[in-house]
């Protein structure tokens, strides 16, 4: 008589996969623990402190500096009545759309497209020129454009040489001046993103479309753009968030003026928090800036949703 052998079937044998128990969590926390700690200290911590401070009377000097008290929604109610808030939000949106979405994004895509299949020398020269502006500190870029656009600057000297009247560009067109400066400085990032994306487009697809009689524009519009759509949305999100926080460039060129004609939300926040020493109100304005960034991100994610 053959002996029968029973095999105990454990939950692990039934499912075929081991559930991550406490030991698995500990293995995950080992390498990830330092990174999580750094995120909590330097990202989540300041955000939580700003959130708390926005509901207090925290100030750099005076009563709010030594005796911080909870004031509820007082800072946000004050913000609704602030005549500078809405113009600053509009100027921030204009600055982001003009310099990041239209300027850096389209110019970076154009340069990356034109540099495709070009010689090594041309790509090296163009890449060096564009990247040279990107690696400059923001304050240096601001002074370069200030020297270029001020009444005694290079642009007016060219205009005088052509018999045209000189202009005080930083006074008459302050937003256009800071938008052009930010495009000049930040286009290199978009160019690098799109250069990497375009190199991943299969050449045989382009060749097949060319054989079928598709023009250069049709190949770019119907083949290249859909294939790099994810990279376009990623680039838009990154340069938008980066542009929202631009402060030094605008402050050094126009200081938000003349008047408040180039005062974006970061400059308004700086003015309230450090010039008028009202830290709590500055924190409340910071959350408006965070909301603007969230709206832009939600739009991009909505556009990207069909591709996920």
Task: Produce the secondary structure layout.
Blueprint: H1 11-15, H2 22-53, H3 63-66, H4 74-80, H5 85-114, H6 120-135, H7 138-149, H8 154-161, H9 169-172, H10 174-199, H11 203-211, H12 216-227, H13 229-244, H14 248-253, H15 265-275, H16 279-304
Give me some keywords for this one.
308 residues, mainly alpha
Instruction: Calculate the mean pLDDT score and round it.
Output: 86
Task: Report the major sheet.
Answer: none
What percentage of the residues does DSSP assign to strands (E)? under 5%
Structural category? mainly alpha
Residues in helix, %: over 70%
Gross geometry: globular
- Low-confidence parts: 1-18
Total strands = 0
First CA to last CA: what distance? 61 Å
What oligomeric assembly is this protein in?
single chain
Helix count from the secondary structure assignment = 16
What is Rg? 27 Å
Helix and strand element order: HHHHHHHHHHHHHHHH
Task: Tell me what you see in this structure.
Helix content is 73%, strand content 0%. It has 308 residues and is an all-alpha fold. Helix 4 packs across helix 16 and helix 5 packs across helix 10. The longest helix is centred in the N-terminal third of the chain and has 32 residues, at 22-53. The radius of gyration is 27 Å and the shape is globular.
């Amino acid at each position: 008589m053959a002996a029968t052998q029973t095999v105990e079937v454990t939950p692990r044998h039934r499912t075929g996969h081991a559930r991550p128990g406490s030991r698995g969590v500990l293995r995950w926390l080992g390498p990830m623990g330092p990174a999580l700690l750094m995120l909590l200290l330097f990202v989540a911590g300041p955000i939580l402190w700003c959130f708390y401070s926005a509901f207090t009377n925290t100030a750099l000097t005076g009563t709010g500096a030594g005796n911080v008290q909870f004031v509820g929604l007082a800072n946000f109610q004050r913000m609704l009545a602030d005549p500078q808030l809405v113009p600053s939000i509009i100027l921030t949106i204009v600055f982001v759309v003009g310099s990041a979405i239209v300027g850096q994004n389209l110019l970076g895509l154009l340069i990356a497209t034109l540099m495709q299949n070009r010689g090594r020398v041309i790509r090296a020269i163009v890449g060096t020129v564009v990247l040279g502006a990107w690696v400059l500190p923001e304050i240096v870029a601001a002074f370069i454009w200030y020297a270029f656009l001020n009444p005694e600057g290079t642009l007016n000297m060219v205009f005088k040489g052509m018999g045209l009247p000189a202009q005080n560009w930083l006074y008459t067109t302050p937003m256009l001046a800071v938008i052009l400066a930010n495009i000049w400085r930040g286009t290199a990032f978009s160019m690098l993103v799109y250069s990497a994306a375009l190199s991943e487009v299969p050449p045989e697809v382009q060749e097949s479309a060319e054989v079928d009689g598709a023009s250069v524009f049709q190949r770019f519009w119907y083949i290249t753009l859909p294939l790099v759509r994810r990279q376009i949305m990623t680039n838009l999100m990154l340069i938008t968030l980066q542009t929202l926080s631009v402060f030094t460039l605008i402050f050094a060129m126009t200081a938000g003026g003349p008047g408040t004609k180039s005062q974006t939300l970061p400059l308004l926040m700086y003015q309230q928090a450090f010039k008028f020493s009202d830290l709590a109100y500055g924190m409340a304005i910071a959350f408006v800036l965070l909301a603007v960034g969230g709206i832009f991100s939600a739009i991009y994610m909505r556009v990207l949703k069909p591709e996920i």
